[in-house]
Write a structure and sequence with these properties.
about 325 residues, mainly beta, 29 strands, globular
Length: about 325
């Protein structure tokens, strides 16, 4: 299997803290920028969602969404249009929120998973929402005017499904699982959704996935302490392009690709690493103690290069400035 040569920049950069956002009182699991970049949604073990906005040089919590989910909120995701916010919870429900008269309200509650929902993600069209859970299934929901209809339930994984993400320009869905694999789904010739490819290579749980901006590469983060990069060999087959190993010493819990091609990874070793990805994979920047406990999530700002959000077991959200790279 290919293993990427990862070069360490002769001038390795550090991430500098732009802001520390405190307010959650338990593990923070997820950070999600609004598509316009004007706000940041976070969620966690305290069963709340917080909406943060920058006010001059400071960040303020402008809304706390609570009293709806009864257990940990594991994931939040903004729709591409920015009108809707989906939240996935260990209570087995996925809620869809929208802002009405200045207040966030639940406009739909999606029920069907047998237990914990681990992730949710919107397709680029905004017409489809995917969810996954501990019940080993992936669901695809079609958004209507007033409701959401399930158009597919997939049981291709043999264990807990940890994450789902969509291709940035096509209706291709990827899922990651405790069974160490990644599954890819699309509509096949019979006009039905199905899993058409299973990516094998990780030796432990796959926690997170991220497509690059062009959709030509898929990064997967694993408890085997590696990040793997996959790419399409043809319309039906994806292959391993590179393995980024030896950088994290504990599970890699999150990966995210920036609009300008930087790849960030977050780990249970408390660190965040940023790679450049133009041909070779170079460690561009690193923060060894980004959080005082596991780093669970990283997300690049959609419009401001070099701005990265992270969340950790320490109940803290941080916003980082990442130095520009020679891409």
């Amino acid at each position: 299997l290919p293993c990427a040569t990862v070069f360490h920049s002769s001038a390795l950069m550090d991430l500098s803290v732009a802001a520390t956002l405190e307010g959650h009182v338990d593990i923070v699991w997820c950070v999600a920028w609004h598509p316009t970049g004007t706000s940041l949604a976070t969620c966690g073990g305290d069963k709340t969602i917080r909406i943060w906005q920058e006010d001059g040089r400071t960040w303020q919590c402008v809304a706390v969404l609570e009293g709806t989910h009864t257990k940990t909120i594991r994931c939040v995701a903004w729709s591409p249009c920015g009108r809707f916010l989906a939240s996935a919870s260990f209570d087995g429900h996925t809620c869809v929120w929208t802002k009405e008269e200045g207040e966030y309200v639940v406009t739909a509650t999606l029920e069907g998973h047998e237990n914990e929902v681990k992730a949710c993600a919107w397709a680029v069209s905004g017409a489809l929402l995917a969810t996954c859970g501990r019940d080993k299934t992936v669901w695809i929901w079609e958004a209507g005017d007033d409701d959401y209809e399930c158009i597919g339930v997939f049981s291709n994984h043999t264990q807990d499904v940890k994450f789902v993400c969509w291709h940035p320009s096509q209706e291709i869905l990827a899922s990651a699982s405790y069974d160490d694999t990644v599954c890819l789904y699309r509509v096949l010739d019979d006009d039905e959704w199905a899993c058409y490819e299973t990516l094998k290579g990780h030796t432990s749980t796959v926690w997170s996935l991220a497509f690059d901006p062009a959709g030509n590469r898929l990064a997967s983060a694993s408890a085997d302490s590696t990040v793997r990069i996959w790419g399409p060999a043809n319309a039906d087959k994806w292959v391993l392009l590179a393995t980024l190993s030896g950088h994290h010493t504990r599970p890699v819990y999150a990966v995210h690709w920036s609009p300008d091609g930087l790849l960030a990874s977050a780990s249970g070793d408390n660190s965040i690493i940023v790679f450049t990805t133009n041909g070779s994979y170079t460690v561009h920047a690193r923060r060894s103690q980004a959080h005082s406990q596991d780093v669970n999530a990283v997300a690049w700002h959609p419009t401001r290069p070099g701005l990265l959000a992270s969340a950790g077991d320490d109940a803290v959200v941080r916003v980082w400035n990442v130095p520009p790279a020679q891409l």
